[in-house]
Amino acid sequence: MATARRPTPAIFVLYGATGDLARRMVLPAFYTLAEQGLLPEDWRLIGSGRGDVAHEDFVGHVHRSLEQFGPKPDNRTWGQFRKKLRFAGGDFANDDGGPLIEAVRQARQDLGEDAQLIHYLAVPPQAFIDLTDSIGKHGLAENARVVYEKPFGTSRKSFRQLDRAVHQVLDESQVYRIDHFLGKEATQDLHVLRFANRVFEGMWNRDHVRAVQIDCPETLDVADRTDFYDHTGAVLDMLVTHLFQVAAEVAMEPPASLEPADLQAARESIIAKFRPLDPDEVVLGQFAGYRDLDGIARGSKTDTYVAARLWVNTPRWRGVPFLLRTGKRLAETRQTVSLILRDPVGPFGDLPPDGNVLRFALDGSGEIDLRMVAKAPGVGLKLGVASARVPISEVAAEEPLPPYVRLIHDVLTGDRSLVTRPDGLAHVWKAADPLLSTRPRLKTYQPGSWGPAAAKKLAAPDGWLLGQ
Ligand code: BG6
């Protein structure tokens, strides 16, 4: 069981409570927090969403979400947990705010006026502005924290509009823009391993690193979320959100300290140094059959795959390509960050290409893997590649926390180290702008493959480490 200070009583309003994200991620994370004793002594979760859902139906919905996406509800925790659930659907945008206003009032009466109020917007980005306005209009913004999912904006222009609208209602200290890739245990090891170990700290630069690959292929389909996906695509869903934030974690300069504000500053400020993407260094793809899915427009030009070469304009990284790749219906599901090290100067000629790689697996509980060139046993001098693998679950007795569990706990305790910042996001959209305005021609790829062949050239001379 994790040990941490218990947060003060909280009222948690979950918008989009019957939607896909809440079902898969937010509700299971909330239940895990309850199981691990990481929620406040007392709390309420008020689900909000379109239409009216009877209280018992909502409780049933939460139970089914846990059955399907875990952790399985046991009698003891569930018995307590279900008592804290409420549903207050519909009409929040109306002048009187609908049933949610009364539900919050009631929860305040139960928990005390000092209870913190947390709004969690598990809704598509198009709904962010209206919901934020309503939160302000109904007097629910004061001292509240508001959680926004990614993508925060869909272009430079829409980001500015959203940012303005949010700051009309909220102070920056109340805003929690989350990106769950930052909440992954192994992502945080990118800075812990680096700054806590001389050997890695010393090699974290262009003198030692030849290329960085952030590679997140997925076998996953999009059939159960076609509406969201067809309006989003791989560039917005993954590239300029998750993969950019992970790239920032790799590329950042040392923070002034490991305090949350300094960590956040180090990560977010490096994004200003991302060179705007050159559309000639980006490959976009769409898997064959995508347009035949129910809910996808026949002539859809949505990208389900993207591979990009990103450059980080700092003395530390000048000339080192950051290769980013992700896509749906690919051959494997993996989430890896690899630092490919330069060959040492010395007596050896050609070394095996996949030796000398420090790899972080972000998926599952996370793993660190150092690949080294070593002598193959036997007579003579043949080289082989050995690997030292550290599953993060073996680092200590604690269980690795799923990313949403960590992030929601951060919101409850006010830890902002993994929250994205508006200056960083402004630079994200600046770097994405050339690609969004001049999109490369979409290439079709076969489901189960590694995507369009054109992406191979981007990764030359090493090639993509996965799927070779
Ligand atoms: C989500 C994307 O944010 O991250 C999905 O919308 C993607 O398209 C998912 O599949 C991948 O993350 P994870 O950690 O759930 O595998």
UniProtKB/TrEMBL annotation:
Pathway: Carbohydrate degradation; pentose phosphate pathway; D-ribulose 5-phosphate from D-glucose 6-phosphate (oxidative stage): step 1/3. Residues 192-463 form the Glucose-6-phosphate dehydrogenase C-terminal domain. Coiled coil: none annotated. SUPFAM superfamilies: Glyceraldehyde-3-phosphate dehydrogenase-like, C-terminal domain (SSF55347), NAD(P)-binding Rossmann-fold domains (SSF51735). Substrate binds at residues 180, 184, 218, 237, 328. It catalyses: D-glucose 6-phosphate + NADP(+) = 6-phospho-D-glucono-1,5-lactone + NADPH + H(+). The active site is at 242 (proton acceptor). Its EC number is 1.1.1.49. Residues 13-188 form the Glucose-6-phosphate dehydrogenase NAD-binding domain. Keywords: Carbohydrate metabolism, Glucose metabolism, NADP, Oxidoreductase. It comes from the Bacteria. NADP(+) binds at residues 16-23, 50, 91-92, 150. Belongs to the glucose-6-phosphate dehydrogenase family. Catalyzes the oxidation of glucose 6-phosphate to 6-phosphogluconolactone. This is Glucose-6-phosphate 1-dehydrogenase. It comes from Jatrophihabitans lederbergiae. The lineage of its organism: Bacteria, Bacillati, Actinomycetota, Actinomycetes, Jatrophihabitantales.
